[in-house]
Amino acid sequence: MVDLSVSIGSLKLANPIMPGSGTMAEGLADIIDLDGLGAIVLKTITPDIRQGTLTPRVAEFNDATLFSIGIPSKGPDYFLNNTLPFYGRYKAPVVASVSADTVEDFGTLAAYISAPSIAAIEANISCPNLRAHGRAFGMDIEATAGVIAAMKRATDKPVWAKLTPNVGDIAAFAKAAEQAGADAIVTGNAILGMAVDAERMRPRLGNVIGGLTGSAVKPILLRMVHQCAQAVDIPIIGCGGITNGEDAVEYMLAGATAVQMGTVNFVHPGAMPEAVGWIEGYCRRHGVERVRDLTGAMSDTHAGQPKLKVTQ
Ligand SMILES: Cc1cc2nc3c(=O)[nH]c(=O)nc-3n(C[C@H](O)[C@H](O)[C@H](O)COP(=O)(O)O)c2cc1C
Q1: Which fold has domain 6-52+71-191+215-294?
Q2: What is the residue with the minimal CA distance to atom 15 of ligand 1?
Q3: Which residues bind substrate (predicted)?
Q4: pLDDT of residue 167
Q5: Is pLDDT of 309 > 80?
């Protein structure tokens, strides 16, 4: 019997698989058993009601999706009165995700939504779809620390810092979030990108710039998880291009304690429970009794070869 449980700080998850924020909705409960997930991470909410960006919002490629949604939000009251009661009946821990226009508003929103049924709050400081050429809190190290500190002051819930990969030294941002009190690091969100429709001579997204997700980004985020894991002592949750159990195990070996699966949920809604099953089989095949022992277990050398240093 494999022990699939993992701990994200004080929070114990039945297994390491959860959705990326914004990539599942209530309808998924008709297709998979949400209690089979390690956690249920909800769509980011904002203090105000928002429409989101102009359409088209999605451009698809073979191994990646470029999207610009812009955090459409029904606001915190809808969240408390409708979204939370729906998900609150599952035994999988529910993780809220918040975003705001100012550091102070992150704190105010975190305090407002800190209902008993919420197990943790993720700070979406990394959304690349807001205006101002995609610049986000997470691209500024002081703003990153400021948001986490404001949320920690405002709520007793564990705070997860979801970093943006659109920075040079991701480990420095992870360290700043840890020092500001983050209970876990989520690495990370989508990579800024753009697509042009040559025939129509115009951008393929209404917002021009969007976020790239899916299999194509996996090597980039995997590298970042490895670097973050070397920089901080708090748990890392890997996210980026994870489509199956094998991808999840790769992230864990590179240093992640748990993982989030995003775009794949739109393509294959059964992907998350299948990944849980695959990981269990992998552990059995490799004689791993506790899935948490996979975290950081990657050997850093190939037998007989000199150890190579990763350089920036
Ligand atoms: C349609 C869509 C909506 C998303 N909405 C959010 C969101 O509200 N908040 C957030 O933090 N990330 C959001 N994301 C980012 C995902 O949670 C995840 O970080 C990203 O897609 C990378 O993972 P993937 O390659 O597995 O998709 C969204 C992604 C997609 C594709």
Answers
A1: TIM Barrel (3.20.20)
A2: 189
A3: 43, 124
A4: 95
A5: no
Q: What is the pLDDT of residue 306?
A: 56
Residue 228 designated active-site: no
What per-residue confidence (pLDDT) applies to 131?
39
Q: What is the mean pLDDT of the chain?
A: 93
Binding residues: 21, 43-44, 124, 162, 214, 240-241, 262-263
Of residues 264 and 311, the one with the higher pLDDT is 264
212 CA → ligand 1 middle, Å = 9
So where are the chain's domains?
A: 6-52+71-191+215-294
Q: What is the pLDDT of residues 283-293, one digit of tens each?
A: 999 999 999 99
Of 21, 66, 67, the one to substitute when testing ligand 1's pocket (max ligand atoms within 8 A of C-beta) is 21
Tokens representing 96 are 């809220």
